[in-house]
Amino acid sequence: MESLLTNFLAKYNYWVYIGLVMIGMYAMIAKRNLVKKIVGMNIVQTAVILFYVSIGAKKGKMLPIIAHGHGESGHQAVHAIDYINPLPHVLMLTAIVVSVATLGVALALTIKIYRRYGTLEEDEIAQRINEP
Amino acid sequence: MDTLISIKPLLAILVSLLAVPLIATSRSPNVREGWTFLAAIVKFAIVASMLPAVMSGMEISYKLVEVLPGLSIAFRVDAFGMLFALVASFLWIITSAYSIGYMRGLDEHAQTRYFSFFAVSLSAAVGVAFSANLLTMYLFYEMLSLATYPLVTHHQDKEARTSGRKYLLYTVGASIGLVLPAMLLTYQLTGSLDFSPQGVLAGNASRGTVALLLFMFVFGFAKAAIMPFHSWLPAAMVAPTPVSALLHAVAVVKVGVFSIVRVVTGIFGTELLHNFGLSTPLLFVAATTILVGSFIALSQDNLKRMLAFSTIAQLSYIVLGTALLTPKGVTGGMVHIAMHAFGKITLFFCAGAIFVATGKKNISEMTGIGRRMPFTMLAFFFGALSIIGMPPCGGFLSKWYLVLGALQADKIAIVVVLLFSSLLNAAYFMPVVYRAFFCPPEEALFEARIQEAPFFCVAPLVITAVISIGLLIYPQPFMQLATMAAAKFTGF
Amino acid sequence: MSAHYPALVVVIPLVAAFLVLIGSLLNKRLAFPLAALALLGALLASIGLLIRVMQVGVVEYHLAGWAPPIGIAYRVDHLNALVLVAVASVAFINLLGTRPLVADLFEDRLGPFYTLYVLLVTGLLGIVVTGDAFNLYVLLEIAALTGYALVGMGEGRAPLASLNYIFMGTVGASFYLLGIGYLYLVTGTLNMADLAARLPALYPSRVVVSAFVICLAGLCLKMGFFPLHAWLPNAYSHAPDPVSSLVAPLMTKVMVYVMVRIMLFVFTPAFAFDLMTISAPMVWLAVIAIVAGSFLALSTRRIKRMLTYIIVAEVGYMVGGFWLGNRLGISGAILHIINDAVMTLCVFLTAAAIIARTGSDRIDDMQGLFKKMPVTMAVFVIAGLSIIGVPPTCGFFSKWYLISGALAAGQYGFVGALLLSSLINLVLFFRIFEIAYFEPFEAQHGEHSPGPGRVLSEVQEAPLETLAPLVVTAGLLFALGIYAGDIVSLIIDQAIPVGIL
Predict the structure, then answer these.
(1) What is d(CA C102, CA C99) in angstroms, rounded to the nearest whole number?
(2) C vs A contact (3+ beta-carbon pairs below 8 A)
């Protein structure tokens, strides 16, 4: 039991992202409202981004900005271990752009759907489709 | 054996295919039929020009393109293929003439489509005859199934649609469902699909596998109408009669049996089947089809349906001959391809001529028809004799060889089957002829005034009937070709 | 010049996409020629690339001169060169063939439409050409986002179908991203070649196993592999016709390519086929996909919907063939990526041409079409025969390899499924041919009243602009069939790692 707890605490960032993915998936599956589904989708994407960001972090280390890089001290060797890993963070800039774009397209389509059916509830839309 | 490399086999196949655009774009019917005739004659000429070389024991081969590593679209003309190609391409000329009489006599619709697909079908049939390997044969076999579909369903009514469905389901369904996997399995086992005189499977497969493959092939080539894969043939009789005549007595069904014989001899090899004792089940299947087909033919009133069941029975003679695995039996089976073709096409021509002249389809309505159409019915008589296997017609010869083959193989039961089925044949053909000529005047449904079908209908059937008779006296080149092929396949 | 082919394949359409947008602001008639030029450029570059790869082997290209693992590398071998040519040519032919239709449907939105079109193709080409796992994700999303927008441009239920497509597509892509995140965690690299070099040492790791499973699940979702296919029929059948005929042939096929790429060149065959014992279950899932797709196709009487269910079955062909794990099966799967792209293009283009003329996508309204649209229907017959698998069309030859592979692997269930689906395809297509050929029955049979939609006599043959690409595509079906042996021995054989027998 204790090992489970230590495991949980040591790797809490993974548990957080797993929890978020689950919440997002739940919303996408269980919610009937299209906007709520979109929010769920966004939570899933954010969870993955969070995962990437968290794996780059290191406790007590600093940002990978080399101070006085052009000065005399710039000739000293840079210890990568002293800095947090910037690569996942950079990658996530792209992923964030993607997620924003997805959100935009999804919301645009939602507007189109609302104009057409006058509602965003899935079951009501299904009813409208089957009516005529 | 000498092999000659020549493009002629390909040309023979392509001639009728190239004629299709010409036929399809012709402005007037006469030009259109002119192209058909020209294509038919050129095709026959090319096939015939290869005859001397083949007769002298050479083989002509041509490789078109290698589609898969080690597998090509390739052609090889041997004695057996020559025999079939000769029959099919010669009868196309005659059927073209008959088609003109029949189609114009009935003022059918969509004649351009009809002549176009007819030409495609012939390409496919000759393609099967000249195939050098199973893949090429499968390609043309499928092409034939699809090209004949618009011909079978020519009338475009509900009955045609039902029959067309049945036709496709049996022929294409069986070839995809059985032949294709069997072919792939063979390729997996042997690494080759080329037809070779002693087969390619020997030493590569166990008895069980060989038996499985054999029956996948025999039933998969459903065009051979071996029971229980036969019921498409009576259904396909909704087609115009020239189609039934050439395709369902000669090209299509013969392609089926041709394929079976080819696979039995070229892929399995007679020796392998003999060693594994697989000839008996094959004989059993063929004999059952012969007897059951003949019995059903007895009960038919529609003339074309009767001919269809008769064809089902007769096709199995060829399979039976091959399954005997003796030189005489195989020869008989192969010659029967030619003999049955000339006999049965005569009978179909007669059925069509009667329909054109009187509009009658049923035997019960034909009492006394000999008084009105004596030439037609006389030809019918000789065609029937040939099918029954009685002199003075060519059918006698093939049955003679089949019986000899059965004796050679020490299979008395098969001799009994052959003789009994001849009796059955006589039992369903002779009443038709008898009632046509020898009925009391008060029962006759026709006046005693000669009024035949159009000239283009009658002339072909007279010609085929005369050839049927002539084949007994001079059965060359078919006899020699069959003997050569049988010698090669059985190794004697 | 030729050294820059890998970059040109992506850069030409990418730059052109913006030019199309700018050009269309000046004059909306500029949109089509610019798009056509861009795709022609991409096509020529990819053909050049294929030739180069066949001459000198693998081509490496470092974007902006940064060597991997820092920079993004484009690594082109026989596999992606072949798929590139297929993608570029399908997109180009479809662009030409649908021009009259697009001009009709999107009269006032030509600029946006062609911009999205070219961007979508850019994304697909990028997915195929890239050698970087994260770059692949970005391009995947570019293709997907433009795809969502294009599908959503349709009428009726299209926006709703597109929204569902977004949900499923995003989850699939997120899973893929998560999977490569795991890989990055243990290897510290995202370059595919680097990954493949470092992973073997880490195989016992459960992180790698999780990455494998999550990646595969995401990809299966994106390619619409049964039972994760639910989004596909709606999205593809409600999309505007010119979009369906672009997305349907390419999207799923490119995703299958990604699966092949990731499994063979990131996880390596030793891991994917031997260590992970999922080959047999995957093949059985493919069997279910094929059977289910075929039967679902039987259940509908709308032509586009039927075709989308056939795609579900075809995805089963490719996934199953790949997981057979032997050279024949994988060759069949890769060959089928190419063949199925062309076949699907052909059927969807004909369907679009027919729907444009008859105004209905019900197969019951296709009565008498053999008379009215003979050329279109002839092409449709050829495409149908290819999907059924009749030689010498290309469909026969991919089926040949797939069945041979299944026999060699002893997977008789897969053989049975392939044959069954061929037979069902026969029924599917001849059901349509029958209606177009036999009906309406002659007046004396008179049970059929003329159906809804336009009166038949008004229906004409499709315009020449559509017919020409159609005929070319039909010709391609034969050419791909006849040269199947060469394609396999010269290209696909070189693409499959040597270790696979």
Answers:
(1) 5
(2) yes
Query: Do the chains C and B touch each other, judged by at least 3 C-beta pairs below 8 angstroms?
Result: yes
* Contact yes or no for A24/A12 (Cβ under 8 A): no
What residue of B is the nearest CA neighbor of C485? B68
CB of C349 closer than 8 Å to CB of C90: no
In what helix (H) or strand (E) does residue B65 lie, and over which residues does it extend? strand B59-68
Q: Tell me the two tokens of residue B12.
A: 């023979």
Whole-angstrom distance, CA of residue B47 vs CA of residue B87: 10
| Digit-coded pLDDT (tens) for B108-164 | 777 788 888 888 888 899 999 999 888 899 999 999 988 888 888 887 788 888 888
DSSP string, C446-492: --PPP-SSS-GGG--PPPHHHHHHHHHHHHHHHHHHHTHHHIIIIII
pLDDT of residue B4: 80
The residue written with tokens 């499924």 in the block is C417
Q: What stretch of H or E contains B485?
A: helix B478-490
Cβ–Cβ gap A98/C138 under 8 Å = yes
* Per-residue pLDDT at A70: 60
Which helix H or strand E contains B72, and what residues bound it?
strand B71-77
Q: Which of B111, B244, B134, B125 is nearest to B180 (CA)?
A: B134
Cβ pair C327, C445 in contact under 8 A:
no
Instruction: With residue B62 as reference, give the H or E element that holds it.
Output: strand B59-68
Task: Answer whether residue C347 shows pLDDT above 80.
Answer: yes
Chains that touch B (3 or more CB pairs under 8 A): C
Cα end-to-end span (Å), chain A: 60
Give percent helix, percent strand, percent coil of chain A, each to the nearest 5: 75, 5, 25
- Three-point CA angle C182, C183, C188, nearest 5°: 110
Give C441's contacts in chain B (Cβ within 8 Å): 156-158
Q: How far is A27 from chain C (nearest CA, A)?
A: 11
What Cα–Cα distance (Å) separates residue C211 from each residue in B77, B222, C217, C224? 59, 51, 10, 20
pTM of the predicted structure, to 2 decimals: 0.89
Helix (H) or strand (E) holding A107: helix A87-117
Q: Is the ipTM of this complex over 0.85?
A: yes
User: What pLDDT is stored for residue B437 in this prediction?
Assistant: 80
Q: Which residues are B3's β-sheet partners?
A: B59
pLDDT at B373: 82
**C110-155: per-residue pLDDT in tens?**
888 999 999 999 999 999 998 888 999 999 999 999 999 999 888 8
